[in-house]
Amino acid sequence: MLENLKxxxxxxxxELIGLFAADKRVDKLDLGVGVYKNAEGKTPVMRAVKxxxxxxxxxxxxxxxxxxxxxxxxxxxIRELVLGDSVDVARICGAQEPGGTGAIRQLFELIRxxxxxxxxxxSNPSWPNHEAILKYLGMNIGKYRYFDEATCGVDFAGMKADxxxxxxxxxxxxxxxxxxxxxxxxTQAEWGEITDIALEKGLMPMIDIAYQGFGDGLEEDTNGxxxxxxxxxxxxxxxxxxxxxxxxRDRVGAALIISKDAAGTALSKANLAGLNRLNFxxxxxxxxxxxxxxxxxxxxxxxxxxxxxxxRQEMLTLRKNLAEALRRETNSDRFDxxxxxxxxxxxxxxxxxxxxxxxTDFGIYMVxxxxxxxxxxxxxGLDKLAxxxxxxx
Length: 393
Description:
Layout: H1 12-22, E1 29-30, H2 47-59, H3 72-83, E2 92-97, H4 99-114, E3 119-124, H5 128-136, E4 140-145, E5 147-148, E6 153-154, H6 156-163, E7 171-175, H7 188-201, E8 204-209, H8 223-229, E9 235-240, E10 253-258, H9 262-279, H10 286-295, H11 298-330, H12 337-340, E11 345-347, H13 352-362, E12 364-365, E13 371-373, H14 382-392
Parallel strand pairs: 1-12, 3-4, 3-7, 7-8, 8-9
Antiparallel strand pairs: 2-10, 5-6, 9-10, 11-13
Helix pairs in contact: 2-10, 2-11, 3-10, 4-5, 4-9, 7-8, 11-14
């Protein structure tokens, strides 16, 4: 029977990891994998996480199941972190999920259960797993223009024009901040326009917020999302703690649902619990409990917020310095957008052939669409990187 299984296309990021590992050059550079790296090229455990884990080790007395919805103190902490007081809490329910990906998968399944005919509109481009999961689930996919290759900014006119084709009951998936893979983000005013479109056409927004705190600040990165949440009758949110808590391997995410009223909240809550039961029963507890400890301890929370801000400022500095180095090497403003973009990623705007030349000639590894991980940039040697990029364009 197993011989009937279909061959699976290799994941491009995983494939890139293997190619980088096999490269024997000592000066090779990995700009592909989407994890934060410090100046030493390592992904450290955050200070507050270390402290919270020590407390958990000392105090935890059982490894028994927590519940189908996970650690509710964690869910409440994420609700407050993401939504603040923008929505009446009686209209919100949530569940702990295994990572942001787990939250996205559960919410997609919830959409399919509620309206199998709904089309989920995603940005073009978007995080590849959005489309991959939707295809696997057999759901309808629409794409709206997002990235302007010429300006390396948002094609907002194209975005609005494409969403005009959406029908009542469809879902529009937005990146809460730090758009992946482009780094280009819609403005607060544009969030307002999309909110108006959703209300006018009867669309339900779904927000994927995986990088809160890495753009303009922990509060600032939710401004658009919160303004929308305050106006629409229903909304779905997939949140991740992989980046801003550095809990990548612990798989810590949350699915939040805003319903029209308390009755809708109860129904949504029951369906989230049912989906969790079907897919994995109980979510993993360790990372969520760590986040809960941090968010409910003023000193740990303050230390965590300070470290997130340090990381954000570091990435802004890297963006500015790379933009300046590229301006010097190319004698043009072609790459000035780097300093304006936000988050861990931006696209260089290179062709696949130029990306391959950087890999073969210089040992510089990035995804084929020329997306680079800003946090993977060398703190020293940006001029050398800029020179290599300039040589292939």
